[in-house]
Amino acid sequence: MAWQPTPYTVPLLVAAVASFAFTVYAVGNRSRGGHALLWSFVATAGTAGVWSLAYAAQLSAASLSTTLFLNRFVWLGTAGLAVAWPAFVLSYVDRTAWLGRRRFVLFWIVPVAAVAAVWTVGVDPLFYADPSLVDAGGYRVLDYDPTPALLGFVGYTYAVNLFTFAVLGYAAAARDGVFRRQASALFVAGVAPLALGAAGITGLIGPETGLVDFTPVAFSGTSALLAWVVFRYRLLDVSPIARDAVFANLSDGVVVCDADGRVVDRNDPARSLFPDAELGVHAEEAFADAPSVAEAVTDGATDDEFRVTVNGSGAPRFLTVGVHGITAPGTARSGTVLLFRDVTERETLQRRYRALIEKSPNVIAVCGDDGLVRYVSPSIARLLGHEANEVEGRPVIDLVHPEDQREAQEAFERAFDSDEPVSLSHRIACADGSWRQFETVIERLFEDADEVVITATDVTEARRYEQRLQVLNRVLRHDLKNDTNVIGGYADLLRDHVDEEGDPYLDVIDRKVKTLTHLSDQAREIDVALHSDAGRSEIDLAALVERLCDSLESSFPHAAVTVSVPESAVVSADELLESAVRNVLENAVVHNDRDGPHVEATVVADGERFRVDVADDGPGIPPIERAVFSEARETALEHASGLGLWLVHWIVTESGGDLEIDTREPTGTVVRMWLPRAAEESD
Length: 683
Description:
It catalyses: ATP + protein L-histidine = ADP + protein N-phospho-L-histidine. By secondary structure, the protein is of the alpha+beta class. Helices cover 51% and strands 20% of the residues. It contains 23 helices and 19 strands. The longest helix is centred in the C-terminal third of the chain and has 35 residues, at 460-494. The radius of gyration is 44 Å and the shape is elongated. The two termini are 58 Å apart.
């Protein structure tokens, strides 16, 4: 199939794209406006798009057979627009009675008959006599002699269009303000294509040979005018002429008052907001609960907007009120239109967010790309002693410690170039001249915004506690262990200088030295457990328990260890799980007062997890110590006697598991640990 470029292809495609865009927009906003107005607009825009697109294809065809075939689709758009355009105009002026089946048949019977004839008989010879392609200066166009049927159809369409132009012209003359501009723009949008089409038919414009229909070509220009009417004057949702098409179905409340301030019309949403706004009631009575609304009507305010709060059904409703004057042709102000928009949900959300920010324990600020603070939360007064209005408008790094300013400035600049939050640690000055440590996160407020939101968290006390814990941990791990080793060494030296009566005392010293050394080792394991970032890994719990039990029997030959595990029990747990299980097994022997302690270790499946049970026949763990771990806290009167069980608790919890300690009858303790199965075990 051969194709040719023409000067009219691009304008026609532009017209087609614009028309289809209007169609999609109108369908997407079908909840707005009246049913007849909306769908007649959709039909008008859609058929105009079909006409433009089909005619662009027809002009681009280089063979007569293809041209005549594509011309059939042109007739679909032409005939469709001949029906849709008058329907749209009648809907716009609220002449919906003409859209009934009996009357509207006068508008669609001729176009439908024409399309049916084209698709059954064909345009040749019904409408075109002796059609052919002729050269029009570098491209070929269709040339033909019009038949009486074609002249009759053209005459019919011109008559219908002249009728619609008269209706629109009267609407433009009879209205004022935005109504007149709206109707005038629609008048021009309808007249221009018809006029250009007539100029092309008569030969005033276009090629010297052949016929080019400039009607769809003109749609590329009138589409901009139509867009102006749709978006600037809100044709689909504020058509003042077709009251029933928009006013009654508007989701916002609308009340119309006359020049004397009395209610002459209102829709259902307005009636629900103001039950006293009955027809004929004065504004002062209708809006007794909102005096500012009544004042706007009586004072003649124009194009004003303000907020009011009304109590409906016991719950306050927040409304925005738009006040618009009505001016009839040849008169002064003849009334007022009040538009009530319910913004309760938006206002409630704004108040919640405002309260969250104002009561936040952090300092929250918004800063522009100029480096100046545009907003800072009131919490800055509580945390740093500065008033918010004193900080707003200042450079964001003014309060940052001089030694931290360079890093803070670099982080601030990176935040504008990154989609990810930027974090830093720095010091901020208090009003009394002291400094506090903050952890700050900087991130873009919106994707395309020139502002960043800064969230600064005061970590001064947390850093102090961390520092103290580090010192205590060093003392416990290093200094205490060194001193206990010294004590143990001197105790061994004393054995050669002490008689037999002193041996029991030296034995006590040895036991305590071993206890303190073990405590220091556990402190090291806990430090590793709490600061490890290794994450979880897949561990075969069955192999781990079996290996640790073998090691336990080697270290404590006098103990009897029973093991029961499946072939495989792969769990997802912290890599330090081995330390936890080893501590439980060793505690079962070390704290057992029997000459031959017995330990039972089992691994069983328990739903989506595996459970490890370690049971012994020792004296048991006192109830007060079990309570410490069930409540995960210690007090001066309730505390665990060592660090081992705390280590177990933290490792199991970090692994996503659970720990339980129970008394065993008649004597002893059972420690149960639940750990999640690995992914492959769950499948």
